[in-house]
Every structure is written in C-alpha cells, then in structure tokens.
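Hey, can you fold this one?
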Amino acid sequence: MAKNKYLFPLIIMAALFFLIGFMTTMNNSMIDFLKEAFGLDNRPNGQILKQLPNTFFFGAYALSVPVGLMIHRIGYKNGVTTGVGLLALGIVLCIPLVALGYIPFLFGVAVFAIGIVFLQVAANPYVNALGPAKTAASRLTLTNFLNSVATVIAPMFVSMLIISDGADASEMAPTQVQEPFMIIGGIAVVIFVVMFFLKLPQIKGDEHDDAEVPKEYKSSAFKYTHVWLGSLAIFFYMGIEIGIPSFFADYTKQLGLDFSSAQRTDMLKYYWGGLMVGRLLGIFILQKYTARQILTLCSVGGIVLVASSFAVGSSNAPLAMWLLLGTGLAHSIMWPTIYNLALEDLGPHAGVASGVISSAVIGAAILTPMMGAIQALTGSVVFAISCLFVYYLYLVFFATKGSKIR
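Sure. Predicted structure:
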C-alpha cells in the first residue's frame, strides 16, 4: 500500500527534478554564448565577468535556510507551487531584460533561480520521505536520473535554438535568447497552473513507514555536525560539477582544439550524459553498496580522470578532452550520496536541515568566479581546474569521517 500511496507524488517530484536540471544546465551552458554576445572578452576582468551567470544563479541558494524555514511552516506542496511560480516569473522577465544588457538579464536569472531554490529545498526531503529510509538514497538517485536527462537535453537546446542562429561570434546577439525563453516560460506557466490545483499529500520530515520505535532527536538541526560538514561537501561538490562545464570551452582552446561556440556547447552533452548514465546505474549500485563507499570511489575516480587529462594534454588533446568530459560519470552519484548522508537520522529536522544543506549550493556562485580569477592571474585554465583536486579530497574526508553522526 505504501508504494501505491507514494507513487504519484514521486512521479510529480521526478518531473520537477527534470525542470530543475534543465534550467540549471541551460544557464551554465549559455556562458560561452553570453561571453560572445556581450563581448565580455573585450572588457576588463572578462574571465570573471563570464562566470557571473553562475554567481547570479547559484547565489540564490544563500536564501536556502530562510526558504527551508518557510517551507517548514507552509508545507512542501505550497513550497513547490511557490517555486514553480517564481521560476515562471523569472523566465518571462528575462525576455525583455536581455535587451537592456548583461546585468539586467542576470537579474531575471536570479528571480528564476530563487524559484529553483524553493523547488530544490522542498523536493529533496519530500523524496526522502516518500518511502522507507533504507531506500532513500536509491529514490534520490532515481529522481536525479531524470534531472540528468534534462541536463543532457539543455546544452543541445542552447546550441540548436540559441547559438546556431549566430554561429559566428560577430553575428551573435543577446536577443537570440528571447524566442527560446518564450517557449520555456510558456511551459513553466502551464506547470504552475497544474501545480496550483494539484493535490499532493502533506509529508512530515519524520514520516517513515518503517519507523516503529519513537526516537529522540536533538533540539535543532543546527546541532548536528554531519549537517554542517555535509553542507560544506555540497559547497565543494558544486565547484566540481559546475567547474568542469564552466571551463570546458577555455580548456579545449588551450588544448588547441578548433571548435565553434556551438560545438563547444554541444560537446557538454557528453559530460551531462555521463551524469545521466551514472545516476541510472546508481539506482541499482546503491542497493548493494553504502553511500560512503560510493562517494569515496567517485571522488578518487574524479581525481584520476582530471590528473590523467592534464598528463596527456600536451601529447593527445582529443584524449585529454574526453577524459575531462568523462568526469561526469564520476560525479553522477555524488549529490544523492552527500545529501542522503547529510540528512541521515534527522527526523523532524529534515526540512530545516535541507535548507542548510541546499544553501551550500552557493559554492558554484563563489568557487567558479574564484577559479576564473585564478585563470586570469595565471593565464592558464589548467591552474583554475586544478582547484578541483582540493574539492575532491574534502569529499573523501566527508565520506570516510565527516558523515558519521555525532
């Protein structure tokens, strides 16, 4: 009965994860296009400026804690509806704002990013609660698989519908985003209307079918060390996941590979495709191995792939490129394993803790411009990407030591 009871809400959450993945990756995939369309290379600090789509988008996650507290009061269903509404509003605002300039357009991005924060904070603990605790990581991986399907589609959407109309940098205009954004905005408005009238069950953070013995919990989510260490893990993970596609175009240029802007963006589908395949496999892998084991293996795998890409770069540029794109497979199950470990055994504090953890997604807003500054200072994108080694090593620490409940 429990499975039937939770099936439809899980389908709805999976659809929202698709939407989250599409908008997140589309924003990141437009970095190279926006750089060319707004002529950022000709401006002072252009390497930092071109990373601002990450800053405006992921910076919204700084609101995750108050959003988590709000959702604790208004409920998951209202939180999700609010998120879809803000997402639709932000996309619609981007249509006129892009004609006003780079920064005005990014303010529109910030509005739909706040909607994504509502969805992210509400959806993860909701999925966590839709069934037995022992299969929570597997459910999160399933929904993240659909998220990954969207991340594969988004770069193709950008390369075909936004960039292709002006494949030559001199012909690119910022207003090329308007018609595609009209399509996405229309879809978002329809989803908002559906969500407004849809009835979803109210789920509490401590609701589990297999909870037979009442447990005692600390007075606040803020008193659990693994929540804070897990938040830092998400912070560094975002530098990893977003860092690769954000610097991929410059890395291929440094390798001497002659790609157009559309081709560089389209190639990212292989990176996001690796995440998609890995998350599909993760549904079954996480049934046999612990989240700690998988997170450790994936982090070490990422280190090996990036180091190997650097090692062969000077002698075999195509192989170096594919090794870097291959990190998508290593990154695939990191998010659900970190999230599951950070939310472990929190009961009624899961909603607030989700806000704390989700606020760490701001890592992509902070770390990518920092990496851009390193690139500008050193003149080499390799030095910027090398920051990932520090991020990976922290994830190894969290998996082996930091995630243990105190």
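The CA atoms of residues 68 and 352 lie 5 Å apart. Let me know if you want another pass with a different chain boundary.
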